[in-house]
Design brief:
The chain is an alpha/beta fold. The protein contains 11 helices and 10 strands. Strand 4, helix 4 and strand 5 form a beta-alpha-beta unit. The protein binds pyridoxal-5'-phosphate.
């Protein structure tokens, strides 16, 4: 597909590696497991939002904006990376943080929260869980505009049809690498949150007639709501790109069995997955997204959903800075 028709900034001067995980594969005794290291993307401590921001920041700059506003949870990787991209482009950045878990905001917390301050955020507003986040961001935008600034609002997770182009681009990068590696992958697994990553990969695989199925492991919403969000965004992307094919409902696979008590709340299976990848492969997952997505993949291997003889590619979407806000639970387990 012709992604070059959309303006883009470049934040990662290389393709992220695809690596085989021999020890994890042997330990689980199921499919051959590969990992796409999108935790090694550019900007401050990388992650999937870096790819989305390449397109979102290009749009903000094309519109002459001088300040970006975005939102997320109190340990948001998306907020950290949006702020880092703004710094790199010489723009200011305001964050609206949602306390999805009541009283979870602590200005002195470690992890991403610490990095918001280190990276020089211009403003942080904390709002209650369930708030109208777009409404809150518009309020900040109005205040800044009244001071003569030109604000640009990036939705939560960067998951609109501009940001999600980053994962159409990732799908194409994966296909190029697999071709060069003579590696025929059967299925791709990723975390499915604000849906841009999952939808971009689905659109990229369909639009390129590659048709490698993508399995999304939900971290927040119920299966039917998440499936609809991914499906709608994937088709918007395919339309925007002028593809001649559309996604069908069967192209969107979501499991919501690994969320546990709620978004960002630890599960014993997440702790097992984080420890397993650290101790078998020396790879740092995160407690909110990739830890739960990997716990889902491990369970689906144990249940025989993914089988011996298959080749599965797990997309590591980043997030390891959040580990430092979860040190006790990731070492000692859920109490
Ligand atoms: C945001 C995020 C995700 C989820 O990606 P979406 O595009 O929002 O679905 C997965 N992993 C990490 C580390 C993230 O920060």
């Amino acid at each position: 597909m012709n992604l070059a028709q959309f303006p883009r900034r470049h934040y990662t001067p290389y393709q992220t590696p695809i690596e085989y995980l021999p020890r994890l594969t042997r330990l689980l005794g199921g499919p051959d497991i590969y990992i796409k290291r999108d935790d090694l993307l550019g900007l401050a401590a990388g992650g999937n939002k870096t790819r989305k921001l390449e397109y979102l920041m290009a749009d903000a700059l094309a519109k002459g904006c001088d300040t970006v506003i975005t939102c997320g949870a109190v340990q948001s990787n998306h907020c950290r990376l949006t702020l880092a991209a703004a710094v790199k482009e010489g723009l200011k950045c305001h964050l609206v943080l949602e306390e999805r878990v009541p009283n979870s905001y602590n200005p002195d917390a470690s992890g991403n929260n610490y990095l918001f301050r280190l990276l020089g955020v211009e403003g942080i507003r904390v709002v209650k869980g369930g708030s109208d986040m777009m409404g809150e961001m518009k309020r900040v935008a109005d205040e800044l505009a009244a001071q003569g600034r030109i604000p640009y609002i990036i939705p939560g997770g960067g998951s609109n049809e501009i940001g999600a182009l980053g994962y159409v681009s990732c799908a194409e990068e994966i296909l190029t690498q697999l071709h060069d590696m003579d590696l025929n992958i059967d299925r791709i697994v990723c975390a499915s949150g604000s849906a841009g990553t999952h939808a971009g990969l689905v659109a990229g695989m369909i639009g390129n007639n590659a048709n490698i199925p993508v399995v999304g492991i939900g971290v927040n919403r119920k299966k039917d709501i998440q499936t609809e969000a991914v499906f709608t965004l994937a088709n918007k992307l395919l339309t925007k790109l002028g593809a001649r094919t559309a996604a069908e409902p069967a192209d969107v696979v979501v499991f919501d069995d690994y969320v546990g008590p709620g978004y960002s709340l630890p599960t014993p299976a997440m702790v097992e997955a984080v420890q397993m990848l650290a101790r078998e492969e020396g790879i740092l997952l995160d407690p909110v997204y990739t830890g739960k997505a990997m716990s889902g993949m491990i369970d689906l291997i144990r249940k025989g959903y993914f089988q011996k003889g298959e080749k599965v590619l797990f997309v590591h979407t980043g997030g390891s800075p959040a580990l430092y806000a979860y040190t006790d639970v990731t070492l000692h387990g859920v109490r």
